[in-house]
Write the structure tokens for this entry.
Amino acid sequence: MNAITSVAAADLSHLRADFPILQQTVRGKPFVFLDSAASSQKPDAVIEAMAHTMRTQYANVHRGLHWMSERTTDAYEGVRDTVAALLNAPSRDEIVFTGSSTGAINLVANSYGALLRPGQAVLVSEMEHHANIVPWQMLRARQGIELRVAPVTDAGELDMTALEALLADGKVGLVAVTHMSNVLGTVTPAARIAALAHAAGAKLLLDGSQAVVHRPVDVQALGADFYVFTGHKLYGPTGIGVLWARRELLEAMPPFMGGGDMIASVSFEHSSWAEVPHKFEAGTPPIVEAIGLGAAIDYVRAIGMERIQAHEAMMTEHALVRLAQVPGVSVIGHAQERGGVISFSMEGAHAHDVATLLDQNGIAVRAGTHCAEPLMRRFGITSTARASFGVYTTLGEIDVLAETLERIGRFLV
Amino acid sequence: MSEQQTATRDAAGSLYRDLVVERARRPLHGGVPDDVDGIGDGTNPLCGDTVQVGVRLGPDGAAALVRHRTRGCAICAASADLMADAVQGRTSDEAAALLVWFEALLTQGERELTPAARAELGPLLAFAELHEYRSRRKCAMLPWSALLAAYRSSEKA
């Protein structure tokens, strides 16, 4: 570990004051929010940016010939630069706003998918969120492509040997894998996957919904071709997601949805498309949400993604130690490189009972299949409880989790 | 109660009262024999929990035996076992009438019910607190949907 992971540098507990929701009690107990991987809480900066927009600076974008529309367009378009900087994208024109990660993946499955031919394949992994499985199954049904699945090892890591073998026949046109598992916390070796994919003539899509929240992301260094993430896990609002893709890919891809804002001209005989990225943004975009996302990115970048990564590494390390001390609790997945998402089960107790009993103590975790049923089957489990961390998580909260689990175990098992 | 027991009790809250935990752990009506008149199944797609209910009916159509095979959480397992107690001696229509009260209990809580309804529900009042846990209501409801399916399948047989 380098110097930045020192406890002092990683202590972000002062940030809790930025999150009004965390000042509350739940069921009479201090609110311990350990469900950021599902959706994170919002800092004042985001809430204020959105409220300020609606109070003082709102009109539709790209079409008004008036002062208010131009100011709103500036704010909205400014977020494209903010996102490009977050991802180190080569150009702001490569940033496409969508409604969510799911929306971004569906865009790629439809538009890039339209360029794939029967006989070609899309390769996903066994640890994908349903959002990175189902759109490819739908593409398979439409386009007659093959869907391949790279297995996951017992440790919860991508089986790279198997992945390489699945690429060997050169039929894979696209590898679509998570950059960080929402169940296991596993961070995948994205740069290695990119090299293997490119050597086999395939493009690489990374689902960064979790990764972008927990660590610095540089799409150029990773060698990705597509990168998607969502705003609401990154301390921003719901309803806004991002697709980054290399310009030449965006230019080659047909539009996804048709409508206003994505056209150059329209007649009943023929329409022509706007330049990228607008070609992919049909209709009035989520303007206020994009501005909220911009504020969220400003917020995390002001803290520093390296510091956030160090903070969460400390939380994760502490949680793994504390959970190991709770009788009957076992953690699913032991990847070498992982982020602040931990799935666990308690012997003799159902994950939903554990989650409800934690909730009765003011502790919010997620329980269930985490939108990753194939991964659950891989590990022979029906559901897990999941604790996930954010910038506001404290060591004390993790202690409360472990102590409460111990009491639940004594009672329930 | 010792201090430790009190602390454990606090962790559990009033939903997981002794009756619920005890019946989940050691069901009195577990296991479905082959010689039942009707069998019904229920699955919760959210968590994969499953309940199978078997009923044997008397000549008047009243349940003489109700058994279940439950793979699920404590709420689901205890609900199945306490349901088996509660519908003993009831016809399909009488069980459906009890279910109306049970659903009212799960959605509105105990205080909204009439004294007569509370008396009908008896030990099932253990689930009253579920009205504050919307996401867990279907855990308690799953055995009942399997039960109604079991009554229906006995009518066909």
Q: What stands out?
A: The radius of gyration of chain A is 22 Å.
